[in-house]
Amino acid sequence: MRTYVRMTFHSEGASPPKVREAMRSLGFDESIGMHDFVFRWKEKTTLEEILALTSRMHDRLKGMDVSYEITTIS
After folding, report:
1. Domain segments of the chain as ranges
2. Candidates 3.30.70, 3.30.310, 3.40.20, 1.10.10; correct CATH number of 2-73?
3. How far are the Cα atoms of 15, 29, 37, 60 from residue 26, in angstroms, in the given order?
4. At what angle do helices 47-61 and 16-25 cross, to 10 degrees?
5. In the prediction, which pLDDT does 11 show?
6. What is the pLDDT of residues 8-39, one digit of tens each?
7. Coil, strand or helix at 65
8. How deeply is 27 buried, as exposed, middle or buried, from its count of CB atoms within 10 A (0-12, 13-18, 19+)?
């Protein structure tokens, strides 16, 4: 399974390298194409685990003035 994140950056927000650092600290890798970051689950996961990860991401990105969209594919 993979969880993908697509970001929209704002000129008054955190720089892309700072956002990348925050995402890496959560276990996401950069992705080129339709999505900006990807989290590769080691095995099939539950909705609760996905919500926990995205909640940590939400908390980590607070104040950075970025918008995001999340998609998880099994």
Report:
1. 2-73
2. 3.30.70
3. 17, 9, 11, 9
4. 140
5. 93
6. 999 999 999 999 999 999 999 999 999 999 99
7. coil
8. middle
